[in-house]
Amino acid sequence: MQLYYSIFWCTALLGRVKGQSLTPSGTERVIPTLSPQVNALPSLTPTILDSSAPNSQHCPGYKASNLLENDYGFTADLMIAGDNCQAFGNDISHLTLEVSYQSKQRLNVRIYPTHIAPEQESWYILPSNIVDQPEWDGQTTASSSDLSLEWSNDPTFQFRIIRNNNKEELFSTYGHVIVYEDQFLELVTNMIDDYNVYGLAENIHDFWLSNNHTQTFYATDAGNTVDGNVYSAIPFYQETRYHNSTDTTSHGVYARNAHGQEWLLRENGITYRTLGGSFDLYFYSGQKDDGSSSALETIAQFHTQGIGLPAMHMYWTLGFHQARWGWENISVLQEVVDGYRNADVPLECLWNDLDIYDLYRDFTNNEATYPLPEFTRFIESLHANNQHYVPIVDSNIYVSNPDNESDTYGPFERGADLELFIRDPTTGGFYYGDNWPGFSVWGDFLLPATQQWWSKEIIDWHNGTPFDGIWIDLSEASSFCAGSCGYGRLTENPIHPPFLLPGDPLMFDYNYPEGFNVTNATEAASATAASASQSSAMSASPVLPSPTTTTRGRTEPTPGVRNLNFPPYVINNVQAGHALGKSAIAPNATHNNQYNTTEYDWHNLFGYQISNATYHALLELFPGRRPFTVGRSVFAGSGKTTGHWGGDNTSTWGSMFLSISQALTMMMSGIPMFGADTCGFARNTDFQLCSRWMELSAFFPFYRNHNVKATIGQEAYRWSSVAEASRRAMKVRYSLLTYMYTLFYYAHTEGATVMRALAWEFPNDVSLRKTYAQFMLGPSILVTPVLEPNVDTVRGVFPGVGEGERWYDWYSLEEVRAGPGENVTMEAPLEHINVHVRGGSVIALQQPRLTVEETKNTSYSLLVALDGDGKASGSLYLDDGVSLVQEATRLVTFSYADNCLAYSSEGSYHAAQPLDNVTITGLGAPRNNSTGRNGLYKGWSSAPKHVSMQYGKTNHSTDTLHMNYDVGIGVLRMSGVEQYTSDGAFEGDMKLCFEE
């Protein structure tokens, strides 16, 4: 089954130039404009669209020689097999090949220059102390590996990766040459017909990456551009092959390279091109011990054996978060907190955008609107109510005006004294770009001293602003001009960004979602008229001059020269002119290490490094506590230290729809703490879109509502319908917090995913390969959101019903009637999201309250949903929810079989809450007439006549238990268990047996 929403893709998923904010109220500010020349950039054609570009596959390739075997593979020399090609750079004539059978499931192929001058090291080799570089496990050999590499020198060096147990070819460069130049690397692999590839995050695209897609990796501040590069670069893909739906196989490929790059997915192959670095390819078999392979196993191997396991986040972070750019003062914050409580809608954490800062400068407070100590008292009041606070921290640092003695800014001056900022190679001084506060610099996180400076700034700021985590923005890193535009102009600081901001004159947003003209016809007409009037006024009197560009063709490689700002190969960067220096630090900017490493080599790692630095700063601030950070730009392995949000999306149905795909790719990428800006960041939402989005995001790991200035407020309590939709969806989410936390435990320890594609859980169903309008939360919860306007039904499938799967409605616990592959129409009024429980699941629940802490202190209940054999299983992980290293944990394992529910409990963590009730559904005969592995499950025709119970080592009388059996839907509800578990639900093992 595939649900189509292409109509919504056509909507303008406008990105935020996060270029839109007012000067803090009460502060007067001169607003000079940057000259147009500052933004002047060449207009280049992406090489993939340039018919005049050379065909790099006409290059000579390489020949292998001097093969030398070792305990875990072999090495060889690769010599260029003809004259230098110089397609898009200077050829490297002598390469080293390393083939390593690093583990049973992982094979590594590295190709890099044999002779590297010290100053060229970072051009080619990504240091292992920055990004994890897996190595040999000390025991695997070619004979014990799942995979093998075959190669040939006819006509030039080419290789392929084979799965040993069935000789399946997973990757093959046969028929293609390898190209290795100082600014261009290319490798082509052949692909099977109609292949199924997923991943290559971050992208705003279908979950299934079509066979006509180009994925560009160059971190950029351009909003959520559909099919373009966005904030992050995680060069990993997972491929599924269905083999006539009888023996599905899966494998993964990870290219450990941080340079700007492109992956060209085409009908018969994938072309991998980068602007530098090395080939450092990791192939994951996806195989289990029994020889079978799966997408989930492939992803887990990438996490456990590639990039590192994701962080275990604090328990409270699973609650609902509210942010806004445009909360004018502390009184407004209090109104938001009160509004949620008065509407009986949970609120866990409040987030501030730029409004808190003095002139947009990190680590400051606008004393006119967020004065200390009043602001401190407000945050402490949140803490007193078991709520939390997280502020934004931008990645740039304002530069003090040297001609203005009163314009002092400590973070810059302290960092400048230590010379910790990225440099301009033309002047040797700091690189002065432009951002919210004006001309700015960026920390050089290659220097250990930068960590110490960053930590001190964060710790000092916490003294007056007692936050609980940090939100890292603009970490691509973003600059609003091209080049070191502040050089010689620092006396103009503070300077307005070179574009208008929301809230500036003539900058109110009148855009509303699709369907708004149907549900709000009068208001839509007024908005259209106001928008036209504003556009007319803007045209008549532009406030800022339009930026200009110059035209320049593709540069030709020059022997011995690397053109960093305009490399010969032009990637399809979404910025104007496709230039690398637009809205970013220029590629030729240099770091302060001994080899003056450039941003050309490190651009995609800035977000990764600042997230790591913030993690360690928080660890220093809160010793022993798990740091909580959410960053905008991430790289492979970022999940070890940070969460991630989807960036500057829009209040459109298409943006909401594509957030599911974005989330699933982040699950693959080892960043499970992911969520989108609920209800949309840019543009205005409406009650209908916001209701549906609040429902959807309730089942994303990171659940936050956030929007921009100059639009209407979209806190959930502002519409009665949105408030009701939120209450209902959050009731489900907060009931499931223990389940979600357990999913995070398995992500943290085993590389499992929190959200899951249906195709991952049902790998032999080829009809699910493109489906993501539905998704799973873990293995047990199926979510079917409404993703289009003006409807009160939704269609979805119930996978596996033809093979014995059973599904139950979350709310009624009634079993679903569905046929194999049937697209079932379900009722979906505005305040309702369809949620179903998979048969075979045992889930521990708690009673939803307004905060996570209150919820955590309620009693437990168990929901048992039986499969076609009348069985079920599950688990629950418990700890203190805060500590980085736990002194005590507990893992509870549940099972149901032969009319007995049992659980065993291991560990010393004490959960004082009792178990008060048990609900079992599926006791009637399966609705779908499906058969389980042991035949048709007959079910119960009446309530049980007797219940026996053993808790710990004691047998208990069960006369006081209350039981209600609904024979019509096969649901048994039993209460009164808390009298036996008053010392804590899981302090001992339990067994409950029922007799008909």
TrEMBL record:
Keyword Glycoprotein set for record: yes
Record carries keyword ATP-binding: no
Residue ranges, compositional bias (Low complexity): 532-560
Organism: Periconia digitata
Record-given protein name: alpha-glucosidase
Limits of the Glycosyl hydrolase family 31 C-terminal domain: 751-843
InterPro entries: Gal_mutarotase_sf_dom (IPR011013), GH (IPR017853), Glyco_hydro_31_C (IPR048395), Glyco_hydro_31_CS (IPR030459), Glyco_hydro_31_TIM (IPR000322), Glyco_hydro_b (IPR013780)
Region named Disordered: 532-564
A Pfam family: Glyco_hydro_31_3rd
PROSITE patterns: GLYCOSYL_HYDROL_F31_2 (PS00707)
Assigned keywords, A-Z: Glycoprotein, Glycosidase, Hydrolase, Signal
Stretches assigned to the Glycoside hydrolase family 31 TIM barrel domain: 310-743
